[in-house]
UniProtKB/TrEMBL annotation:
Molecular-function annotations in GO: oxidoreductase activity, acting on NAD(P)H
InterPro entries registered for this protein in UniProt: FAD-oxidoreductase/Apoptosis, FAD/NAD-bd_sf, FAD/NAD-binding_dom, FAD/NAD-linked_Rdtase_dimer_sf, Reductase_C
Descriptive protein name: Pyridine nucleotide-disulfide oxidoreductase
Domain FAD/NAD(P)-binding residue range list: 4-299
One of the Pfam families matching this protein, by short name: Pyr_redox_2
Organism: Manganibacter manganicus
Cofactor: FAD
Entry keyword annotation includes Oxidoreductase: yes
Amino acid sequence: KNGVVIVGAGHAGVQAAASLREEGFDGPVVLLGDEKELPYHKPPLSKTFIKDAKAKPQPLRGEVFYSGNAIDFRPGTNVERIDLLARRLELAGGGGLSFDRLILATGSRPRTLPLAGDLDGIFSLRSIADARAIRAMSGDCQDAVILGGGFIGLEIAATLRAGGCNVTVIEAADRLLGRAIAPVIAAHVHKRLESIGVRVLTATTVTRLESQNGHVSAAFISTGERLPARMVIVGIGVVPNVELAEMAGLAIANGIRVDRQMRTSVPEILAIGDAASYPHWFTGMDVRLESVQNATDHAKLAARTILGHQDAYSAVPWFWSDIGDMKLQMVGLTGTSNRHIVSGEPDDNRFSVYHFSGPKLIGIESVNRPADHMIGRKMLGLGFTPTDEMIAGGAPALKAAIA
Ligand code: FAD
């Protein structure tokens, strides 16, 4: 028996190993990861780790979890190829590993900026190694330029600013945080970042980088301005790690294509987490989400699929981001929103935006209103749409409505 082999030891891969045991799988489980660390939480990297010289990585599970559950965790192992016919993986540096079932949990990697070349002082943030490199330079950071006004870029902007660095955010679109977030939230985040001294430039791009002795020294932007920069952090989105699957001939569509049980076009191979694209029960449309919730719930379902269960993916999507003193929490998928109402006051730094598609509640985005978020998860799980009056009544009224 070759058992289950999991490629990628991030949020999804580690949860898959845990869930296989929790669901009663008693065959061999091998977890392969190309990083050398004990698998760790990624969200703190952009929020706390880079500003605290003493911060340690936060392990997803302690070392005893792997030995205690007979999970053969092999760090520093890079899988190079899937031999589909032989049901075997080829590992970097030689050697191979056979599998009965394979779970691809390869995650995603930051999109790169072609004009960055290979200058020193240019970073992106995905791994603990990236975070250590940023932290090492941010101690005496004077001027940092962040490319990209998405969640990670803005988290890093607020974190570096709190450490005393001069930070400028450059965003090509005319607003922060992409199109999926309500404009009122994007505008609030913009204003609040400016109030702590972060310079935010939208509808602006970087045209050229200047360097001295191989180290970046400034960024020129589309207005012609020269921004001094000892650090440039590129946060312009991620691309899914689909190459292994693609080479093996599995179906790809903005990610490794899976069905509602997380099976790829070859049913013994499953794909989960940031790398997987799937028809979302919530909208019926194909999505590829990048969140801890998505990785965790995929992994739980993949384990059940391997054990022969037939349940289809039905988790409520949610996400959080901490940008300075703003705790943003999102639940649902709001891409098809055609009406929204705001509850609470942006000026108090505490408010929520309820999104509707036609008559139906499809998502809630909150700033420092965790109770709204928690009730939102319940309402969306139940398929319940509150009236405008209930929303105006706040969390107590909503709680009463679904009790
Ligand atoms: P990953 O956690 O990236 O794990 C994939 C692993 O597979 C990696 O270790 C990779 O090196 C390895 N791998 C890839 N290819 C191979 C191969 N061929 N062989 C061996 N190993 C391989 N989400 C939230 O919900 N809230 C947040 O606040 C939040 N903040 C974030 C902050 C940062 C800085 C980052 C980087 C991400 C954040 N996320 C957040 C997103 C969240 O971390 C991801 O959605 C989640 O990690 C996805 O899990 P995954 O297992 O699919 O991928």
